[in-house]
Amino acid sequence: MKFVSTRDNKNIVTFKEAILNCMPSDGGLYVPCDGEDLRNWILYADENTSFANLAGTLTSGLINREFSPLICEAIATRAFTFEPKVKKLDENLFLLELYHGPTGTFKDFGTSYLASALETILQYTEEKSILLDATTGELGACMAAALRGKTRVKSVLLYPKGKIRGIEESDLVWNGGNIYPIEVDGTEADCHNMVRKFFQDRELVKKYHLTLGNTANIGRLLPQAFFYTFAFTRIKNQVSGGIYYTMSTGNYGNLISGLYGWQLALPVNGFIMPTTNNLKLDARGNVQVLDSFVPLEKRTPADPADPSNLERLEHIFKENSLMLGSFVYPADVTAKDTEDACKELFVKYGVYADEETSAAYAAAKIRKDISDDEDNAIVIIAREAPELDEMFLRHNLGESPAKSETVTRSMKSVKIDRPAISPDDTSHITSVLNSLNLRRMF
Question: 187: which residues sit within 8 A by CB, 6+ positions away?
């Protein structure tokens, strides 16, 4: 599989190039270029296939022209010592839990796969890479877990004052680890702006081998397509009709990765989600992507610091925009709908559902016009451990589950005994990048 920029169909690169130099110079985002038919790979797997084996098989199917099956298998098996869980709630209602990784969030899967892919590929090419990202805590905790034991990848994390967590002392570069946190005396927006400045300078990106750990990087996004194949292997023998997935929108990464799964021949009938300001229904009930009203050539470059995947959504349906309404089903969900859904999931099924999961369930109930068939199945995607949304659960249920050891560890605040830098101080970041380039162990 090759990858192409959303802004230039002649800008075609390999998987290695797409993850190591993840922001195309034309201002777009990398997306799969040539569709692979992995139907036989997908249908062969069953409920006994582990997530790591499934990911290794699909990775091999996707990039076997670039890397050997051995390398593809190594990427997946090193990445996934954990896996999702699928629970059957009702005859045709299932819950896909994506929070059983090291920090209690679905991001563990993408960051772990990206870190493993980078490390494995760089070992063979004897190169190195630095991930430069902004975080308010969650991504930092995921990155720390993903990079433990790696030797060719480092992460520089910019974070607002006091907003770093889930990192152990041994994770810090000056203690022999792979994380270099830099506290910024400013806001999250300030941190994002600092990341943008570096990625606007192509020479700096090349000099310091910079890439990203967020979903602007296709290597972080693509493995999320494995979620849907995993769920399919667990429920395919229990379902006789269509399969619909319902989810919160976030930055649309899970929607895009689900559609990539569909492009790879995964049996799926559609994706349901609450509407947003940018993805909604018009007066006639047609799906609207508001960004589409602005031609690509008149848009600002894709944001490396705070990406939206809507441009990738447009790219999937660019040849036939009417098909969008056949796979993506937004629903207008109110706060009351969400709260009622939370209570129903708890009373009927004993499920603690955070606000995002509750909204996803509410959306599925509202869009029964497309899923209300006794043979159709709904899979609710739960992205975060419910105890991370304790206030929402206590407000609606009067209780919240106890925090797991995993979540407790990922939420633990970290004090970095180094002075915070000004939002204008890019020279300090440059000196850090220089020091990482010169480290012998790197």
Answer: 160
Distance (Å, whole) CA 58 – CA 41:
7
**Beta bridge partner(s), residue 83:** none
Q: What whole-number distance in Å separates Cα of residue 229 and Cα of residue 337?
A: 29
Inter-residue contact 214 to 111 (CB < 8 Å): no
User: Hey, what are 119's tokens?
Assistant: 């490390």
Beta bridge partners of 272: 246, 329
Q: pLDDT tens across 398-431, in order?
A: 999 999 999 999 999 888 989 999 999 999 999 9
Residue-wise pLDDT tens digits, 180-229: 999 999 999 999 999 999 999 999 999 999 999 999 999 999 999 999 99
Q: Are 261 and 225 in contact (CB under 8 A)?
A: yes
Give CA–CA dist 223/101, Å, rounded: 14
CA gap 125, 303 in Å, rounded? 29
Give the predicted TM-score (pTM) of the model. Answer: 0.95
For 392-441, the DSSP string reads HHHHHHS--PPPPHHHHHHH-B----S--B-TT-HHHHHHHHHHHHH-TT
